[in-house]
Structure formats: structure tokens, C-alpha cells
Amino acid sequence: MNKTVIALVLSAASFGVLANNHAGGFVSNEGSVGPKGGFVATAQAVTTVVQAKELPDDAWVSLEGHIVKQIGKELYEFKDSTGSIAVDIDDRRWRGQVVTPETKVRLDGEIDKEWASLEVDVKRVTIINK
């Protein structure tokens, strides 16, 4: 009986160690990974709002500027030096960060074009300065 209990405890401990070894993801020299891991490529060129508005649906963008106001439950107005665009940021994408209109951010996401609307579906919010 004791040998069975010891074997179960050792198995559970080994499983926990193995699970933790696979929690991360690839990290390039310039990037970092969030708490759940994932791929982070080398620094992507910043896309301006004007450029983003000309891109096709599902194109990946990286915007740098300011979120100036909330216009819906998870919909915000984002501005850079070239203009403004609507950005959809799910609550989980904030990762506990607090952002004000004065906070410069980098938003990584994809263009979401519908018949009469255009917005960026944000996958990651990064504060550039506080």
C-alpha cells in the first residue's frame, strides 16, 4: 500500500514538472511572451492608421498611439499622428494593465472589415510608457 501511495505521489509530481516545461513559447531576441506563452517574432514595423484603413480584411497590424475614448462595451477610439480608427479590445487582452488617454500603447491585431465598418480586432495591448 505504501509503495502505491509513493508511486502516485511521484507520478503526480513528475507530471507537474513536465507540464511546467511546456507552458512557454518561442521568444525572439526582441520579444517576450505573455503568461500563456506563444510565438513572438522580431519587432514588426508599425502600421499607421491611414495605412491600416487601406489593408485587406484579416491583415495583421501593429499600431502605436493613444486610446482616446471608449465608444462601446469593448470598442474604443485609437489615434495616432495620421488619424483615428475603432479598435475592439476584449477584456482579457488588458491583462490587468491600466491605460488612460495619456498612455502611449502598442496594439497588435488584425483588420476586421465588414460591409460598412472597419475596426482592428486587438490581440495584444502593450504599454510603451506610463
UniProtKB/TrEMBL annotation:
A Pfam entry, by short name: BOF
Keyword Cell inner membrane: no
Keyword check for Signal: yes
Keywords: Signal
Signal peptide: 1-19
Gene3D superfamilies: Bacterial OB-fold (2.40.50.200)
NCBIfam families, alphabetized: stress_OB_fold
Protein name per Swiss-Prot or TrEMBL: YgiW/YdeI family stress tolerance OB fold protein
